[in-house]
Amino acid sequence: MPHTSSINQETKYKLNNGLEIPVAGFGLYLIPAEETEERVYQALKAGYRHIDSAVGYRNQKQAAAGIKKFSKETGTPRESIWFTTKLTGQQQGLEETKQALKDVASDVKESIGYVDLILLHSPKTSSQKRLEAWKVLEEAVLNPESSPLTIKSIGVSNFGKAHLVQLLAKAKVKPVLNQLELHPWLPRVELREYLKKHEILAEAYSPLTQGAKLEDPELLSLEAESGLPKAQLLLRWSYLQGFVVLVKTNNPKRVVSNLEVLPKKNDDWKISLDDKIWKALDKPESNDVITWGHNDPTLFPID
Ligand SMILES: NC(=O)c1ccc[n+]([C@@H]2O[C@H](COP(=O)([O-])OP(=O)(O)OC[C@H]3O[C@@H](n4cnc5c(N)ncnc54)[C@H](OP(=O)(O)O)[C@@H]3O)[C@@H](O)[C@H]2O)c1
């Protein structure tokens, strides 16, 4: 029995605040600032409607400019494009986060007016800093007129269960999602169950393991057996898990081919994986963290 889903390039998932996020996201980590505007423009032209940047990537301003250019040239409404950015650890804290919102506003407001989603990039600060930062983000969502920047949704990244338990005990606004390293070698089964219980969506980053596992002998043999490119196998796995998927490429051809893993809206084929391949990729116990210097940020101790 193949594992199949009816999602397509235009599918959106409903968040716990009622807004809808496009399932296929284009990530900007390590895209040089001077190439970002063009790459974002290309990604939108290819059909992506979801762009993932961060203050730490030093390209959010150029990303916003790419969205503006596409929107203006094609007449695509700003509202049909999702833009996420993330605040660094140094931007956590009452004063720090207030200042951070002014800084993000000065980078993106003129081009795109508002931000769809702001995330705390990492829990690797302190309980006080995380909770203070969250308070400022909540305030921005609850009282938009008091904020220098309109933010539609707020969320977290790299938060483990302990960080979420602590946050949810105080939060007036729930995070809409948790952006996490997720791939067959790091399926985070337990954490995902917790997220599901609390209606927090799992968003997958590094679905291609940043290339680290692309020469894995088992993956290469699945590629040979299935006739599907290995990157496609990993992306199919990720979409079929129900994640919002963020994939990065700075290669114009891959911008297109990575999105074509999903059918176009009216195509008559569905994304699927053969049961044998699905089982071979299923490693529920695996815990191979590739990003963040191999130190799992979700396990950062609570002070
Ligand atoms: N919240 C966080 O802490 C965090 C951490 C990491 C990433 N992210 C987000 O998630 C996004 C994606 O993750 P990522 O950039 O770490 O890793 P990724 O998407 O898993 O992998 C990107 C790497 O794979 C290569 N690649 C892309 N498409 C390919 C294909 N079809 N075949 C073979 N290789 C391919 C890229 O090279 P080319 O560019 O040469 O194609 C690049 O080296 C990021 O850009 C960022 O937005 C968030």
Summarize the structure.
This protein is an alpha/beta fold and 303 residues long. The chain has helices at 33-46, 60-74, 94-112, 127-142, 161-170, 189-197, 217-226, 230-240, 252-259, 275-281; strands at 3-5, 12-14, 20-22, 24-27, 50-52, 82-87, 114-120, 150-157, 177-181, 201-205, 244-247, 271-273. The chain has a single domain (3-286), classed as NADP-dependent oxidoreductase domain (TIM Barrel).
Overview features:
globular; eight-stranded parallel beta barrel; single chain; 12 strands; TIM Barrel; 18% strand; 303 residues; alpha/beta; two-stranded antiparallel sheet; binds NADP nicotinamide-adenine-dinucleotide phosphate
What name does the CATH topology carry?
TIM Barrel
Distance between the termini: 47 Å
Mean pLDDT: 97
Sheet with most strands: 8 strands, parallel, barrel
Strand content of the residues, in percent? 15-25%
Order of helices and strands: EEEEHEHEHEHEHEHEHHEHEH
- Uncertain regions: pLDDT < 50 for 5+ in a row? none
Main CATH class: Alpha Beta
What structural class results from the helix and strand content? alpha/beta
Keywords: Oxidoreductase
Site (Lowers pKa of active site Tyr): 86
Organism: Lachancea lanzarotensis
Domain NADP-dependent oxidoreductase: 31-269
Would you give an account of this structure?
The chain is α/β, with parallel strands linked by helices and 303 residues long. It has one domain (3-286): TIM Barrel, CATH 3.20.20. The chain has 10 helices and 12 strands. NADP nicotinamide-adenine-dinucleotide phosphate (NAP) binds next to strand 11 and helix 9.
